[in-house]
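Hey, resending since the last one bounced:
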Amino acid sequence: MLSPIDVLQEQIRSHLAAFDRRQVPPTGGVRRAAVTVCVLEDAERVPYTILIKRAAHGRNPGQWALPGGRLDDGERAVDAALRELAEETGVTGVEVAGMLDDFVTDSGFVITPVVAFGGVQQPVADPREVASVHDVPLEWFLAPGVPRWRGKLLQMPLGPSIVVHAPTGAILWQFAEVALRGREQRVFDVKQPRWTRT
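The structure tokens again:
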């Protein structure tokens, strides 16, 4: 008999397999990045994802983000996403479940989101790039009021002091709708706040 986490993982895999992912074709001059929506389990096997708060120095200082970064020359998006996950949080040995739509940012990046399962692990922030790592139970993605809108701006309130905006907020909204709920949801037209465009 499958455990609740095993059932959830099968549902996520099935939802992602049925999703007609939209990709931005490779073209010269396009800057590419990849992130991981990593589903981990606590000691009681309750599933959660991890968000990071970027370090006060470097790119997007102090912003909420998914572990991720730029692709190296010739690197595949999945490989880059998992490399960055390991570098920024120490999470390794994950199993890729699928991918979401590429998201084109206002700053000219194409972000490829990878969904992965990592089992029971304890993320540890790399202080060179990450100020802190935060657990977000999957049930919070499905809570009333998530997402919420402030005018045309999407907000994902995912904890007492965690409010995530696009592009990360858009990716997490699509994760909630597609991977968790099994719905088709596009987020290419979600607006970014001005302060995220660095």
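Residues 9 and 19 are 15 Å apart (CA to CA).

Sorry for the duplicate.
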